[in-house]
Amino acid sequence: MTGLRITVCCLYPDIMSTYGDRGNLETVLRRCEWRDIAVDVTELRLGDRLAPGAADLILIGGGGESQQQLVAPDLCKVKGEGIREAVARGAAALAVGGGYELFGRFCQPERGAELRGVGLFDAWTIRQNAVLSGHYDTISDAHVDRVVGELVVRWRDALLVGFENHGGGTYLGAAAHPLGQVVSGHGNNGDGTEGVILGSAVGTNLRGPCLPKNPALADFLIGAAVIRRHGAADLPPLADDLEEGARAAAMRRALEAAARTARAKRRLSAFARAGLSRGRHARTRAVRAALHVSARRRLAGSENRPSSAKARSGGSR
Amino acid sequence: VSAGKAVRRGTRRLGNPNGTTVPGIVTLAIDRGALAGLLAEIPRGAVLVTGSNGKGTTCRMLAQVMRAAGLHPVVSSEGANQCAGLATTMVARAALTGHLPPDSLAIGLFEVDEGSFPEVLRQVSQPKAVIVTNIFRDQLDRYLEPAYIKALLEQVMQTLPADTALILNADDPRVAFVAPEANNPRLYFGIEDPALCRGETDPTSDFPRCPRCDGELTYTCVYYAHLGHWACSKCGLARPQPQVRLTKADLTGAYSTRLLVATPTAETTLEIPLPGLYNAYNALAALAAASQCQLTERALPAIERTPTAFFRMEKARVAGHDVYLALAKNANGYTEVLRAVLGDRQPKKMLLGLGDYPGKQPDTSWIWDVDFASLTGLIPAPVVSGNRAADLAVRLKYAGWACSGEDSGLTIEPDPVRAFQTALARTPAAQPMWVVSTSVVLWEVRRWLAHHGYVQELWREQAGAGT
């Protein structure tokens, strides 16, 4: 097919783009360019309406709580109807992180009043002081209630890889379908599901950004956008060698992270057993040993530089 | 303190690079008040430098000027910018009695990690001045957003003594009006050279909002990222008029920059031995602080002799090539280092690195905010390295660099040392080569260079230059 053309609407590129989210747009642009699909990019800022007939793909990125509070009223009142209408007419959408949270029914920030969302997805987000497992050891002391780590998700017959960093837990209503099942990481709220999908609209916690390392998802969205505009799509495959390399590396990282968690859990339960079976002295010894481990960790984390070059060199393999 | 000194000697003997923090940790564990006590013994008080980028370079430049003015700056060792690192510095300087040797010309000059600022300020009770260089997105997985850093700084700035001067970047809307309730004297520095404008926006900006009303900011001129001549379209708040101004700069040199700087009392032309606009800002911050501390103008040219520090365009001579090591740890750092080196638009040989420490700082999404697109073709056949090299390669591909196919010449070599050797072998004879990377790759390259005698080991260098 020739003469293909789609319109991509980027919502608040100046506000909701905290985690390299412009990489998602960049990926759509290049993958279309390589297939001779022309792309018109419409940037919608505060106050701009979304014309449902003119949007083939809607993108919204992540943002912190202050950014969410800034855009939420505009998203609801000015753009909400247009977004729901566009998706009902077959437009594709990708909402990531903070944008995903705002595409649900409501979202509870850490401070301040609950934010009303677009209501596109039958989902809601609340702050939960999530009990985190050991492999989330990158969280600074001030933010222990965030989920930060690698995330691998089974979506259809493929695996999606990425990185999650969120303080909220997202829950899906009866009418919503999760995007996929968590293979490694936390996902929506720890219940094994990740993201949401409605028609060709996808909400997800996957960052990194999401699309460069998941060309299958990128092509799903591009395909849906082309179908919306032209009625059919036949996307020729691209050489995704570098992308596959990055995916493989991300999966290795997720495996290593999972192994670290498992080791930490084993160590903890070993301490607990020692404590239960051998009385007070053994308990004291176990606690001392545990403290020793955590102190060493803190030492390693106390500066921006390697605590020991040798320990760090493993990462480059 | 004595225990700290003993530990320091011990770690040095073992050649452990961790020597910049461990003695401090030990000292603080034995005596919580040791650091505050030692700091209070510095007769001329302390100047603190904080912000996302440029702390270390600003410190080195200012130290140079202070020395030329006859003072004896007590400087924290490079990168050791949290409490433990500061304690190590002080312990190294203290005598075995646990006190500093008496020196009426001593003045503290400390680089402070922006996230540790509150913690450090509890120890330094009476800072003479606080310099805030800029606030960028940095280590999102550690500190979350710039708004959080700004709130953190504002919180502690309320507690500063009334006569502590704030030396602020007028061009950074996050910094210029930090802690508006604090009545401390403010000295602003900023750039006023229309020739350096990048237009009205820069793709690497993260678009901060108005610090007063959250309105949209408009720029008549952007120097880089979100730094420039800004004003709020809603409430009219605008960039303050800086007292220390850069009125002209020549940025086309890959190795040095010529600056024309106007302070309230003088106008000076300086040739700083570092390239790039971000280093011009560092020089401005240092000159503003020198002016605030009323150092003699004759001392200002000393800034031209600022030694380059490790990873800040650090130079080594390897197999007939000049090799430069440049640290780039976030989107703006990476962009500005590349723009600085490629300011003359001449293609150059480079190793581009991206790595993280296992289980730490795994978020490298910021590479998508680096402005690689405008540098297409200027880095022919780059070698990418580090444990996240594959991510960087994808990024370069989507920036439009020739990456796939036979003619690309892009090489992915995760091992930093092998990557370095490959890149060096591909550099034409006598041509320079740059290593631009996050720290993990640079550390490995540097360790190899030190092992082969091309550079000094870090702790040896500090022992020579420091105490």
Backbone CA Rg of chain B = 22 Å
Mean pLDDT of chain B: 86
Which percent band covers the strand fraction of chain A? 15-25%
Helix percentage range of chain B: 25-40%
Structure description:
The complex is a heterodimer of chains A (317) and B (467). Chain A has 317 residues and is α/β, with parallel strands linked by helices. In chain A, 38% of the residues lie in helices and 22% in strands. Chain A has a 6-stranded mixed beta sheet, sandwiched between helices. Chain A has a 4-stranded mixed beta sheet with strand order 6-5-7-10, covered by helices on one side. In chain A, a hairpin with an 8-residue loop joins β11 and β12. Chain A is globular. The C terminus of chain A is likely disordered. Chain B is of the alpha/beta class. Helices cover 32% and strands 20% of the residues of chain B. Chain B is built from 15 helices and 17 strands. In chain B, strands 2-3-1-4-5-6-9-10-11 form a 9-stranded mixed beta sheet, sandwiched between helices. Chain B has a 6-stranded mixed beta sheet with strand order 12-13-17-14-15-16, with helices on both faces. In chain B, strands 7-8 form a two-stranded antiparallel ribbon. In chain B, α1 packs antiparallel against α2, α2 packs across α5 and α4 packs across α10. The longest helix of chain B is centred in the middle third of the chain and has 16 residues. Chain B is globular and about 60 Å long. The C terminus of chain B is likely disordered. Chains A and B meet through α1, α2, β8 and α5 of A and α7, α12 and α14 of B.
Name its key features.
heterodimer, A: 317 residues, alpha/beta, 38% helix, disordered C terminus, B: 467 residues, nine-stranded mixed beta sheet, globular
Short description:
The complex is a heterodimer of chains A (317) and B (467). With 317 residues, chain A is α/β, with parallel strands linked by helices. Chain A has helices spanning 22-33, 65-88, 98-102, 215-230, 241-277, 279-301, 309-312; strands at residues 5-11, 38-44, 57-60, 92-96, 106-107, 115-116, 123-127, 147-155, 158-166, 168-172, 180-184, 193-194, 196-198, 201-204.
